[in-house]
Structure formats: structure tokens, C-alpha cells
Design a protein that fits this description.
With 70 residues, this protein is of the alpha+beta class. 24% of the residues lie in helices and 20% in strands. Strands 2-1-3 form a 3-stranded antiparallel sheet. A hairpin with a 5-residue loop joins strand 1 and strand 2. The protein is globular. 9% of the residues are buried.
Length: 70
Amino acid sequence: KKEKRELIRLSRNAKGEVVRDLNGRGVGRGAYVCDQETCLSHPKLSRFLKRAFRADSIVFESRSAERHGA
């Protein structure tokens, strides 16, 4: 299990899209995940995010540029 500072926080924006919370202080529910491509492309990630955000569907695209703030 990783420490919180080793994880990234994801949150949902007004459109319902899951985005990286860059400062970790976004409004509403958040979910912490590992920042490695293997974690972000894990087959069960969508199900985890649906449960975390209490949503029926999730829009999330794992793109390296977004994850690294480019």
C-alpha cells in the first residue's frame, strides 16, 4: 500500500469527467490512485471510480500529458 503523497487525486468536474486534481483541494468527492500507467490502465479502474464517485458512468482517459501536468 502506497502513502497518500505517492498517489494522485482524481475528482469529477461539472461535466462529469474525471480529471486530475492538481492541488489536491478540489471540491467534492475525490479518489486517490497510483500515478503509474499500469494503475491508470487497470481493467477495474472504471468500476473503482464509479463506486468512489457514486456514479452510473465515468468519463476518464488515461493520457500521460494530462497526468504530468503538460
